[in-house]
Amino acid sequence: MIITSALVYFLAFSQGLATPLANPQEADLAGRPSKPKCSKPAKRLPWQALSRKEKKAYIDAELCLMRKPSKLNLPGAITRFDDLIKPHQIMARETHQTGYFLPFHRYLMHTHETVLRTECGYKGHQPYWAEELDIDNIQNSDVLDSVTGFGGGVLDTLACVPNGPFKNYKLHTGPGQKNTENCIERRLSNIATLTARQEYIDYCYQFNTFEDAWPCLEDGGPHNAWHAGVGGVMLDPISSPGDPLFYLHHTWLDKVWWDWQKQKPERLRDITGRKVSINPFFDLLSNLPGNSTITDFFMGNIPGLPSIPGGGPFSENNRGPPTFQPRNETIADPVKLTDTLTVFGLIPNTTVSQVMNIKDGILCYEYVDYEDAI
Ligand SMILES: *[C@@H]1O[C@H](CO)[C@@H](O)[C@H](O)[C@H]1NC(C)=O
Ligand SMILES: *[C@@H]1O[C@H](CO)[C@@H](O)[C@H](O)[C@H]1NC(C)=O
Ligand SMILES: *[C@@H]1O[C@H](CO)[C@@H](O)[C@H](O)[C@H]1NC(C)=O
């Protein structure tokens, strides 16, 4: 494995080691077994199990990112929080409906956690949203608490976040590929949350290969459920990291992928898929007619635009069983373990193989289930 010295330093930092390099030979000479690289995995906990103090520390760190100036100098980025939206926005076509989707988002969650820790003094780890607790009742979620959480939203109505710590934040990135000043909008939807239920996850888990399990997780219900359930900025497939809830949702999805991966060792190396999405909506969403919104698009409210297969994320079909079918397509040049992943220097570039195992490569964490965390 070839790693740059910057990456070695970064690893040492993220794992809290006193020295950048633990020398395995030294350990052998002292007669002790050499230390495994990820001997003390960080615990990623559900938000709903955090103490009030832990919740405040995370939100304070996010607010710190929102106050710090951008360092990437990409168009539309004013704050450091905006910098984190940029890789997702600019590379939307490469990182959605492609083999990079799950590895890239895992790496992006790790990037967010790292930047909170290194630039905003956050001592905790990246929490996730235990979504199973809030299905069909999202408006009462502990996550959306106006005092201890991320603020709420209005059921079935598109509106700026009405309360909580992010009420006054002005986004400078999005919607889509545009960069306009906007509040963080939400539009809570319970019908959309239904495809995060266990029946949908189990349906995806029956698939044995990444080729089939990944599109099921991405497009077959679990991933879309919370993007549409929170709605507004979160419904934007390009600029959704504009709502800090993005990181709680995608960390949950990362856990869902990991819970599938850990069942069989070969799944830690199983990767494929196209490298660039062929879905025309990446163009459509940045050029919607009149003053129609991304919400209008996904609700099928824009005359003349193609309808969404399955009726879109707000369909009554969500009450019924999953209907995802594997694509069964041949891809000429599929994603490989050796392919590079980048977040434009927010943290060093890496490769897909480095993020396939959450306790190896550049990563060292584990997930704690809600029942075990309370
Ligand atoms: C924009 O929205 C307003 C209010 O919803 C509506 O009255 C108007 O017709 C819309 N304009 C266009 C060009 O769609
Ligand atoms: C998948 O595609 C191949 C080639 O196009 C075809 O022969 C095969 O029957 C398909 N399998 C399924 C399950 O649809
Ligand atoms: C990181 O990867 C990107 C995409 O492959 C590449 O353009 C860039 O030069 C890389 N940066 C470094 C520092 O290697």
TrEMBL record:
InterPro entries: Di-copper_centre_dom_sf, Tyrosinase/Hemocyanin, Tyrosinase_Cu-bd
PROSITE patterns linked: TYROSINASE_1 (PS00497), TYROSINASE_2 (PS00498)
SUPFAM superfamilies, per the entry: Di-copper centre-containing domain
Region (Disordered): 309-329
Presence of keyword Metal-binding: yes
GO MF assignments: metal ion binding; oxidoreductase activity
Keyword RNA-binding: no
Keywords from the UniProt entry: Copper, Metal-binding, Signal
Signal peptide start and end residues: 1-18
Pfam hit, one: Tyrosinase
Ranges annotated as biased composition (Polar residues): 315-328
Tyrosinase copper-binding domain ranges (all copies): 96-113, 243-254
Full protein name: Di-copper centre-containing protein
